[in-house]
Design brief:
By secondary structure, the chain is α/β, with parallel strands linked by helices. Helix content is about 35%, strand content about 15%. Helix 4 links the parallel strand 6 and strand 7. The relative contact order is 0.14.
């Protein structure tokens, strides 16, 4: 029988592997090499740093992460030593899209900012960025896209340069993956190029942003919305006090997104170890009130859209809870009440 070590914070996963494997649960940040010496698989989230210090000398053959990003995993090392890695690509895209539009329309309502005819610039057009693009176009935004890898593969026709996007967007939403090329990409030069009064939204990775540059730019910018931070969970609380909406890395925490991410890691482990009974696993929707809902936004005013988004996701509650307990970053995430996801 195989042995699997699982981050106990992953929802819907307790009891799933037990008929087919020996399973050990532990908080992701507390997983150490000794836990993995005899393990065949490791299932984590972003709080486990999966590198040589953790994995060398263990029997781990397969690593599954219930996240889109893989910046917590040393992919070249895993590849060199034959550890198969699988992420949960696209699993939280709907939840993040919900967060962005609830936040954007909520902040616009609080500051009496009209969004009619606005241009939205999306930096990074993968699973999440594509969902944001779809909603933006549905709501009548003009859309600019910057994604150099996709532009190189698909041609430049539908993509803009980053400079053009920054200079012409009323809303800038960051969705780039974190790597050595994108780390601190949002620096003083980046913010200098943004329009006066433009929104800045980051739901990707905190390390994409130079905190000092952002703080210096805030007087020039419009609403600033941050869900991700440098040095999580020990975030820059001065920056937090300056932004319009602050949340503890929960933008993807819809009920359906969490179902999808857990399904992705379970299925990937099942396929690697040929556990046929779990090939099509999907967590049951045991809370009917949290099942996804389709919204009809046709003919609505900006105020009506804002009210509908807030009804389905009252984002200022998350902002308030975080500001009241900024040192409880991990606790707020671990005990978050998953919200219902909406789509169009």
């Amino acid at each position: 029988m195989i042995t699997i070590v699982v981050d106990s914070s992953i929802p819907f996963i307790v009891g799933v592997f037990e008929p087919y494997a020996a399973v050990r649960y532990k908080l992701g940040a507390d997983i150490v090499r000794e836990d993995l010496v005899d393990a065949d698989a490791l299932v984590v989230r972003s709080r486990t740093c999966c590198d040589a210090a953790l994995l060398e000398g263990t029997s781990v053959k397969m690593l599954a992460t219930a996240t889109i990003g893989t910046d917590h995993i040393d992919l070249p090392w895993c590849n060199e030593y034959g550890i198969f890695v699988q992420n949960a690509a696209g699993s939280n895209s709907g939840g993040v899209m919900n967060y962005i539009f609830s936040a954007m329309y909520g902040a616009a309502a609080r500051k009496s900012i009209p969004l009619t005819g606005a241009t939205m610039g999306i930096i990074g057009v993968g699973h999440v960025g594509s969902r944001v693009e779809q909603m933006a176009r549905h709501l009548g935004f003009k859309v600019l896209l910057s994604d150099p890898p996709r532009a190189e593969d698909e041609g430049q026709v539908q993509f803009s340069t980053l400079d053009y996007l920054l200079e012409n967007s009323d809303v800038v939403s960051l969705h780039a993956p974190l790597n050595e090329e994108t780390r601190n990409m949002a620096d003083s030069d980046f913010f200098d190029k943004m329009k006066l009064g433009a929104f800045f939204i980051n739901t990707a990775r905190g390390e994409l942003v130079d905190d000092d540059a952002l703080m210096a730019a805030i007087p020039k910018l419009g609403p600033v919305i941050l869900d991700v931070w440098n040095n999580e969970p020990n975030i820059n609380q001065t920056l937090m006090s300056m932004v319009d909406i602050a949340t503890p890395h929960i933008s993807g925490y819809s009920y359906h997104s969490k179902q999808r991410s857990t399904a992705a890691v379970v299925r990937s482990v099942a396929r690697f170890f040929s556990i046929k009974e779990l090939f099509d696993f999907f967590p049951p929707a045991d809370v009917k009130e949290l099942e996804s809902i389709k919204l009809d936004l046709r003919g609505m005013t900006q105020g009506q859209v804002a009210a509908l988004f807030q009804y389905n996701y009252p984002i200022f509650t998350d902002d308030f809870m975080f500001r009241m307990a900024p040192d409880s970053f991990e606790s707020l995430r671990a005990n978050y009440s998953y919200r219902r996801e909406f789509f169009i």
